[in-house]
Design goal:
Blueprint lengths: L7 H5 L2 H51 L3 H14 L6 E7 L5 E8 L25 E16 L2 E4 L15 E4 L18 E3 L8 E4 L3 E3 L12 H12 L5 E11 L6 E16 L7 E2 L21 E7 L1 E4 L4 E4 L6 E6 L2
Parallel strand pairs: 4-9, 13-15
Antiparallel strand pairs: 1-2, 2-3, 3-7, 3-14, 3-15, 4-6, 5-12, 8-10, 9-10, 10-11, 10-12
Helix pairs in contact: 2-3
Length: 339
Amino acid sequence: MRRLKNSRTDRERGAAGVLLAVMMLVLMGAGALAVDVGQIYAERAQLQNAADAGAIAIAQACHATGCTQSQAEAIAQDLANSNSNDASSNVLQVDMSVANQVTVRTTTRDGTSGAGFLRPMFSSALDAPPATVGAHATAALEFPTRGSGFPLAISNHCYNLSDAVATGAVQKISYKPGGTCTGPSGTQIPGGWGWLDRSSPCVAVTQNGSNHVGSDPGNNPPTDCQNILTGWKATLLAGGEVDVAFPIFDNATNQGQNGQFHIIGYATFKIWGWKFGNNGVYEFRNTAGSPGMTASLACSGGNNRCVIGQFIKFESIDSFSGGSGGGTNLGTVIIKLID
């Protein structure tokens, strides 16, 4: 009777081993794909960092001093390599055909072989092909439309920075109307510069196209600006540079407390010295004997009020304390990634 029975155990012997082998192949394949997909994502992240950095750097460099296509490509290539783990990436294109924009496209390059693709680390055993990935970024130059800062506005009749140069001439901008800085209306509001209403201690909020009432019809500075002026003085004495983005007005109307300034944009002024009042921090390097000063730049008279320096091109990377968009190009731009 024992010989007439079929042994179920005999028929299934070895099935577990086959199943284990199949599962091992599946797990190994999934693991290989996971590792290689991770490699692709890591490469993509490096290429994106390279494209972002290249677009911003080119926009900044070309605005500051101007650059050729070959110079822009060299900047992008250097940053592409430095943002890659193997110090090697391709810059496929640097596109500056759109005004005030630059687009950088990066692609894969193997640092050892120079090949423009990634070799699979494990999934090649499954006959997976090499992979090529890329990234792109677009940086734009935008001109400020509003801002907040030191409560002083300067006439556009004082602005002399052209698009062809990085800095304007060193000049003295006087408070009282007269000379090249007189406002077109000829009113008693300061033609060169004037104080603005403040939203907080030594801070005025301004916006293109709006009128702002002067905070003080006299020529003395706001008393709450001492800390700012002390900081400027310390920076200059330490050999640093004080660059301030001032609102620029093209028209001054009415008089005294009813006076208003029409803001058209923002320009950065590299400050050499000033005389906003008498003694203390209210005057600094404003005499002919001060470092870098001349008799024509001096502002040492008792009632004279001047700010001395030069307009410069200035690039702010997403850090301007205001808004950007369709403002007037006065040499100060906000650089930001838009794609």
